[in-house]
Amino acid sequence: MAPGKHTYKKSSASSSQTSLTPCQYCTQTFSTRGIKSHEASCKNKWEKKKQSREFAEIAANVMKAQRKAHKDKQCLCNDKIQ
Fold it and tell me: Where is this region: Disordered (predicted)?
């Protein structure tokens, strides 16, 4: 063997026999070794998306209420422009 060259032994379990676990947030499958770190980062990502979605829904409801209130006043805003 030449200096600096390394040979690595393959794992005794073949890749088809490796146990894969699905992530509870995105359903991607990972080895039992990698699932913990993936789920931790995936959980944060999904929580941020959830918060963003909730904020967008609240903002849409506020805008809808403001438009309704504006129409209910029978505002003459367009008449003032002319």
Answer: 1-21
